[in-house]
Amino acid sequence: MSETEAAEPDAESPRSAAEREITRQEAVRADAVPLLDPREGIPPVVVDATALERVVRSFAAGYGPVAVDAERASGYRYGQRAYLVQLRRQGSGTALIDPIACPDLSRLDAVLADAEMVLHAANQDLPCLAEVGLRPRRLFDTELAGRLLGHPKVGLGSMVENVLGFVLEKGHSAADWSTRPLPEDWLRYAALDVELLIELRDALHAELERAGKLEWALEEFAAVLSTPPKAPRPDPWRRTSGVHRVRSRRQLAIVREVWLARDRLARERDLSPGRVLPDSAIVQLALESPRTPAELLALPTMRGRGARRHQSAWLRAVTRAQGLPDSALPPPSQPGDGPPPTHRWAERDPQAAKRLSAARTVVAALADEHTMPAENLLQPDSVRRLAWSPPAEVSAATVGGALRALGARDWQVRLVATPLAKALLRLEAKGDR
């Protein structure tokens, strides 16, 4: 039987299995117990080499996986550096490390080289952990495991509540973790984030085994670790919120120059760029093109203290853009390396639009069959690229090869290559390729 054919009549359908899981989780939530304090209390924050060495020895003597988390100051500070690192291990307890006071954790990394590290949404924390010298060799990502298992909510609090029956304290995830000293209730929250992470890992590991998805998960975890850091985006200023309102190349140049001026100031002051000047102000500067301080300060978006404080920098940026020759103005859009936006496919290549519709239908059906989000079965970008430029000779082998070249894992190729090839061949037989 193919992956898309119906199950036997007496087999439980994927949707009914998902509904039963939701019912079970609702029952767990009804009996959930608030988790108010770490088992061993709040550990002191490690802020010097002597205390860090004690942690290194303690975690070297522990056993089993290591729960790891990091707190950043997104929205407050420039960049995504860690301002607190939390770890927990059987036999070692919990450690809270200040990576500003102790910026080199390579000794700790060395003693944990053979340990599996357990993170929730690992791709968010791995870059800032690498900056301080923590680089997992083996990974278990509890959020990714939850997605593969079809859990309807995969935030850490929801997972701990639905799987383990405990309610985690909420409220400090968006705090300014660069604050010193860190308040006690924030430290309690941070310690609780790793308090049950190993237990959650164990429960999800068993659930993955029962569902026949453990090998899939291990492939996904390995892929997370092997994915190189993202290269800086070309023209990052084009991601300014509201830039779609800007029409002319001259106005785009103003967005670019003001964005670059803001970025320099934010880096120098170690502030989130949005706290120096909001995106809405950049867009309004581009639309209004003020030429004098009075015109600039009259703009509604320039009333904030940060915006007014650096008014001369913004005016210089606007003036600089206004004086550029036409040849130096940015193009209206950035050339892409992939297919055009899908809303244009029907006009530009109707056959490609049909292939995309067929491919999306196949992936959605398979994802439903295996109780997981479609994007975790196959990345939407891979679906688009395959539909836009399919192999010259369509077969399960050539489709699988194309998907592997796009980064699909072996387990994904095994599930989707044959059904996708059949769908494309059906269109080809109809003359729709």
TrEMBL record:
Biased composition range(s): Acidic residues: 1-11
GO biological process terms held by the UniProt record: nucleobase-containing compound metabolic process
Top-rank taxon: Bacteria
Stretches assigned to the HRDC domain: 248-328
InterPro entries found in the cross-reference section: 3'-5'_exonuclease_dom (IPR002562), Exo_C (IPR041605), HRDC-like_sf (IPR010997), HRDC_dom (IPR002121), HRDC_dom_sf (IPR044876), RNase_D-like (IPR051086), RNaseH-like_sf (IPR012337), RNaseH_sf (IPR036397)
Pro residues: compositionally biased ranges: 328-342
Protein name as annotated: Ribonuclease D
Gene source species: Thermomonospora echinospora
